[in-house]
Write a structure and sequence with these properties.
about 800 residues; alpha+beta; about 60% helix; extended
């Protein structure tokens, strides 16, 4: 048997890749190029030899700062391109390679140029907005002044402009002339005109009314044009206002309120002729400014477009350079300060590729001394690395979400590829719903090349990443749906006629009168005649419940068998003798025997009550079984199995801690040096042994841990088997929900001779199918299948206490790392 197992071909995913700890001694002149080539290869995980140093104390801290500053400038440029609604070129134009120092100078020039252009554009936009507001105020306030011609005196100038911008004062010589004349009579009626945001107008009016105690007249009208906010670049609705008042104190209050609300006040002459002249002059200035603004925007867009052609390449270059210097900071200088010393993990198969890359780096950098590459002995556990492809990667991620496998530990993902979608399908079995899931999976697969290059949302990214999981779940759902004979809960005679027919030719309702079997059983799946019969639910419940127990016992046994392969791989004979063997005996003495009874009952058609058999197997094992006896010798077999189960519990609990204690004592008394290697390996693989502290052996701690482990297995054998009944429960719930939506929605609506009611019923049925059965039920079945794998299956053998192999690779760099 052992020879047969040894001759089995190795599985790629069963064990993680063999890793080795290597040391690199790299000459300083070729260090940058060597690390760059290793980043392109992506098969070496560097160890941080400067973990005790802060980022600012490391050798290449200045280079990292420079790269970070360049990344900031590139993000600024990218932000400017996106604000200008320009697209940066995904395929950059061919250009000669640029050095990092030259790129740094170019980026500084581009940033300075863009900041200057933005500043000029903001100033021009501010002046343009002021003139536009002034023009609107002149038009609207002129209408108010014409309508209030009875006012004798009007305000002809303002001592201060709340906006307080000198650029505006230079806008027109006529404005200056209008602001020169002396004051009119202080006791007369005066006015202030201006413009304010529409959202503030109501509060502004109330504040003016309260401040002047109602001694004012407030007129306002909406502006005909929206004005661009120079800061947020959004269109803002504004309102023109004219406040008539009397007295210097009222004027001071009103100006302060205008300043507080951010209202811009503009002088408006009462003379209509002067108003028209100023309006014409302002319009001319507006036209000039608009031309200047357009020319500035065109120039800025042209500059951004030229930069955008190289932006992607530059960002990748800076990202890579920063990653290289971050990695170099993990290396140590030797005492001569001429070489860098680094350590890292790499797969054994990659050693030749790494050496070739280092030789190429030495040659390309014209270094006189080559890179020294040699393996080292490691004390700590190596990282875990599985070579996955786009199909197996999603299943490996499902396992890793629970915990990364320890180094060379058996990988559950090998079996999860099949068992996970199958257990999902047992709960989701309906080949109509399975076809819907299949179509969704095929759409994702058809657009795989396109979607893989796009930035997707979190939900869509998760769905796309699990496209092959979805494909297998849909295929197994179709298979289980054919076994259950359910197509949107409707059975079909796909594989021939039913094995049952009406009791006699006169009966019209076979579901109430009863059916008799007249030919061989339905060839595949559930006979469609069970649908709607009085015994449908008892039959399907019995079938699915027993099937759930069988599947659960098989999967739990698979987990225990994998624990044997783990123990055998790590040469832990203790685990085989005192963990694997009693666990197999205990589980199969009880639930393996229950599975055997289920199969015998199915094959013989017996009416024995299995509940009664299992309960009285414990309560009164010596009693006669009577009509519940399924085969000869059942009672003595039950007694033997019960005794084996009782023996297995102390077998799991007591021997292992005492043997570990004896091995430890013998090792340090010098009497067992011959088996030192074996016993040490045995101790290393035991989670309950002193793995890190070989010289300290706490027997009570080991014993308590073993007791917890044993009790957990004994109780878990019962609770885990019961947990697999969720396969039956969710399958029943899915089937009944489908039946309710079909009969109480679709058929009920179809019974009316009204096209509107039929369409409404069809719409409700489609909505319920899509959102409840295809989304919520899919998620529910997925989570329950996840639980069965993580808890019921993996806790039999899987520790999941490893850590992932994360090599230094340019391919894994993302934009988030800028």
């Amino acid at each position: 048997m052992e020879k047969f197992i040894e001759n089995l071909p190795p599985m790629d995913l069963m064990r993680s890749e063999k890793m080795t700890l290597v040391q690199l001694i790299i000459p300083a002149e070729s260090s940058h190029r060597a690390v760059s080539y290793l980043g392109e290869l992506g098969l070496l995980q560097f160890r941080d030899l400067n973990a005790d140093k802060s980022p600012f104390q490391r050798t290449f801290a200045n280079q990292v700062k420079r790269c970070a500053e360049m990344s900031r400038k590139l993000r600024f440029i990218k932000d400017q391109i996106s604000k200008a609604n320009l697209l940066s070129s995904v395929r950059p134009v061919m250009q000669p390679d640029i050095e990092l120092e030259e790129l740094e100078i170019q980026l500084a020039e581009h940033e300075h140029e863009l900041i200057e252009m933005n500043s000029n554009s903001e100033k021009l936009r501010q002046s343009y907005n002021e003139l536009l507001e002034f023009k609107i105020v002149l038009q609207k306030a002129g209408e108010f002044l014409v309508s209030s011609g009875s006012h004798a005196v009007s305000e002809r100038e303002l001592d201060e402009n709340v906006y307080s911008n000198n650029d505006y004062v230079e806008a027109s010589s006529l404005i200056e002339q209008e602001m020169r004349p002396g004051r009119s009579d202080q006791s007369g009626l005066r006015f202030i005109s201006g413009i304010i945001c529409k959202s503030k107008a109501l509060r502004f009016e109330r504040m003016l009314f309260r401040a002047t105690r109602g001694n004012m007249l407030f007129n306002h009208a909406p502006a005909d044009e929206d004005i661009v906010d120079p800061v947020s670049r959004e269109m803002v609705e504004k309102t023109v206002f004219v406040v008539f008042f009397s007295g210097e104190q009222a004027r001071t209050k009103i100006l302060k309120i205008c300043e507080a609300f951010g209202a811009n006040c503009y002088p408006v002459p009462e003379d209509i002729t002067k108003q028209r002249q100023i309006t014409r002059e302002v319009s001319l200035r507006l036209a000039d400014l608009e031309t200047t603004l357009d020319a500035g925007i065109r120039h800025r867009n042209k500059a951004l477009t030229s930069i955008g052609m190289h932006l992607v390449k530059w960002m990748n270059m800076v990202r890579r350079e920063k990653a290289v210097y971050d990695t170099l900071n993990m290396l140590n200088f030797d005492v001569t300060k001429k070489c860098l010393v680094g350590e890292g993990w790499c797969p054994i198969f990659a050693k030749s590729q790494i050496q070739a890359a280092l030789q190429r780096a030495t040659f390309d950098s014209s270094s006189q001394v080559g890179v020294i590459f040699h393996t080292m002995d490691a004390v700590e556990s190596p990282p875990t690395y599985f070579r996955t492809n786009k199909f197996t990667n999603a299943f490996q991620e499902i396992v890793d979400a629970y915990g990364v496998a320890g180094y060379q530990e058996a990988n559950p993902a090998v079996y999860t590829v099949i068992t996970f979608p199958f257990l999902f399908a047992v709960m989701f079995g309906d080949w109509g719903h399975g076809i819907c899931l299949l179509l969704g999976a095929l759409v994702l697969l058809a657009r795989e090349s396109k979607l893989s290059t796009q930035k997707l949302g979190s939900f869509m990214e998760m769905l796309f990443g699990g496209r092959y999981v979805l494909l297998l779940m849909s295929l197994f759902s179709i298979y289980c749906g054919l076994i259950y004979n359910e197509f949107f809960s409707v059975p079909y005679h796909i594989f021939g006629g039913s094995a049952y027919k009406c009791r006699d030719t006169t009966c019209k309702d076979a579901y109430t009168v009863g059916l008799v079997k007249y030919q061989d059983a339905y060839p595949f799946g559930v006979d469609p005649s069970w649908r709607g019969s009085r015994s449908e639910l008892p039959f399907l419940n019995s079938l699915k419940m027993k099937m759930s127990i069988l599947l659960g016992v098989v999967q739990m046994n698979l987990g225990i068998i994998l624990s044997y392969f783990n123990a055998r791989f790590f040469s832990s004979s203790l685990d085989i003798r005192y963990q694997f063997v009693p666990q197999v005996i205990f589980l199969n003495s009880l639930f393996g025997y229950l599975s055997l009874l289920i199969i015998i009952k199915w094959c013989t058609g017996s009416q024995a009550d299995l509940y009664h058999v299992m309960i009285y197997m414990f309560l009164s094992p010596t009693d006669n079984l009577g009509e519940n006896q399924l085969f000869w010798g059942q009672r003595p077999l039950q007694i033997i199995l019960l005794l084996l189960a009782l023996i297995a519990v102390p077998w799991m609990l007591f021997p292992k801690p005492f043997i570990l204690k004896r091995l430890h004592t013998e090792r340090f008394q010098g009497r067992a040096y011959g088996i030192l290697g074996t016993s040490e390996m045995d101790l290393d693989v035991e989670p309950d042994s002193a793995r890190q502290h070989h010289e300290e052996f706490n027997f009570s701690e080991v014993f308590v841990h073993q007791m917890i482990h044993s009790i957990e297995f004994v109780l878990g054998a019962v609770s885990n088997t019961a947990s697999y009944l969720r396969l039956w429960a969710l399958s029943l719930a899915h089937s009944e929900l489908s039946t309710v939506f079909y009969e109480k929605v679709l058929l009920l609506a179809w019974g009316y001779d009204n096209i509107v009611i039929r369409l409404v019923g069809l719409a409700v049925f489609a909505f319920a199918t899509a959102f409840i059965l295809l989304m919520m039920e899919t998620l529910s079945a997925f989570l329950h299948a996840l639980r069965l794998h993580w808890v019921e299956f993996q806790n039999k053998f899987y520790h999941g206490d490893g850590y992932k192999f994360r090599p230094f690779s340019f391919a894994s760099l993302t934009e988030d790392e800028d």
